[in-house]
Structure formats: structure tokens, C-alpha cells
Amino acid sequence: MATSTLGSGTVVLAGTTSGTTTVTATAVAGTTTLTLPAATDTLVGKATTDTLTNKTLTSATLTGVVTFDAGTAAAPAITTTGDTNTGIFFPAADTIAFAEGGVESMRIDSSGNVGIGVTPSASVKLQVKTATNQDLAVISSSFVAGGVGLAAVNDAFNAYTALDFQGSSIQMGTGGTERMRIDSSGNVLVTSAAGLGYGTGSGGTVTQATSKSTGVTLNKPTGQITMNNAALAASTNVSFQLTNSLIALTDTLICSITTAANYSYQIQTYCGAGSAQILLRNIDSVSRSEAIVINFAIIKGVTA
Question: Global pTM?
């Protein structure tokens, strides 16, 4: 084929015979179009390092390895027309990341760990950030070998609360320490020395107004009742009503006396719907006049 020089315009390669044509161009202003005569024709670089820069390929089929620049979150390597700050980029070796609006939104690191809104910690298979230091992570069990867990963690993954699943049991913990579990038989077991009970905000206090038989009202699942300091004769009973909307007929009301003279009294309770009767007996041989303090807690119960 002869060599032709074209100052500007379009070079058209035509003919009925296949072959190889070399196009060499110096820097020119304007637009130069290279048209291949058939849809199946192939454009081949002279060397493996040849580069096609700032060109638009329409309905192109690419075979072999296609290499892109690493890109950044602000300028992803693979993007779309009209939205060039959204796409895929490669921030490190063996790592894929996705950007939206110029900000990294998801990353898959070299270990296959996935972070959404956050770079995943090395020990986390999936970490989703909802707000600063408010992440949800899928992790290996913190408490039992071979299990899988869900953890509420901070961004750096050095403080978390976990819910672990292993076989037929569920473990719950805070700060990397198991606190409670539900075993394979459905038993709920507290495994922390802190014990089982109501937390701050659950309780309340109330004081009898005029006598030891004066009723009190406290709509809390736990609390403290301070009785009136009226005299109670030796070997004598007194009762009063605790009105509490949380109490049901099937519940158990646990009471204990906390005053110094607690060995001088016995206490019994009777639950009803919305209230309970508390009976106090002076078992001492003398009359007593303490403002007795009673702690109580409701344990919910059913009959079926």
C-alpha cells in the first residue's frame, strides 16, 4: 500500500482484501476520524504499550486484558459520561473501591473484606457505617470458636457490642466479653458477674404519708417504698396496698427489707390485677417504730 499524507480531514481505509495498515500522525488541531470498513475489523496497537487516549468507543468489544489507571474517589478510573465523579477506582493493590459524587462509598480490600462508608477492619468481613463511630459489622464469633457474629462497633473497631451465633446457641456481649447467652435448650443464662436485673431508669421511690396502712402508688417494675414510722405492736400485722399498673395476677412481687431492724419483721405479698397487698409483721417482743424501707421487683409470669 502506498504512503499518503493528509493535512486534515478523514482517512478511510477501504478494500476487499484483509491486511495491515499503519497510520502515523503528528500532533494536529481539530478532530481526526479513523473509520474501519467492517464491524468485525480490528484495531491493533503496534506494541503492548500503545495507548488510546481521550477517545470514545461506541459499541466496542474489548478482548484480553483491559488496563485502566488507578483513579481516585474524585476521578474514578471507570466512570460514565456526565457523571465523572461516580464510578470504580483502585486505591491499593488487590483493592476495589466505588465512589459516588467524588466520595468513596464502598471498598473491597485485598482480603475480600467489604466496607460500606468505611474502610473495613482486617478482622471484619462486612462493615457498614451509618454515622461516625456507629457501624454494624459481620465478624467471626467473639466468644465461641466457629461462630459468626453481628457487632455494633466504632469506626476503628476497637470498641464494640456483639451478638454471636454458634450452632444452636446465641451469645451476647459488650467490650469483647460475653455477658449472656441463650443455650440450645432455650435457657437464658447470665454469664457476667454483674448479674441480672433492672437498669438505671427502671425504678422509682415512694413514701407512705400518714400510717403504716396507707396505700402507695408507684408504676415501676422495681423501686423502694419507705413506710411511715408509726408504731407497730409486738406480734402484730399491718398491710397496705401498692398500686402499680405493671402488676398482673400471674406475677411475682419480690420484697426485701433494708432497714437495720429487718430481722424484727416478716413480709409477705399478694399480687392482683394492677396492685399488690404487702403484709408486714412485727415478730419482735416489743413495739417498734421504724420507717421501714422495702425494696421490690416484679417478675412477670404466665399460666400457659
Answer: 0.60
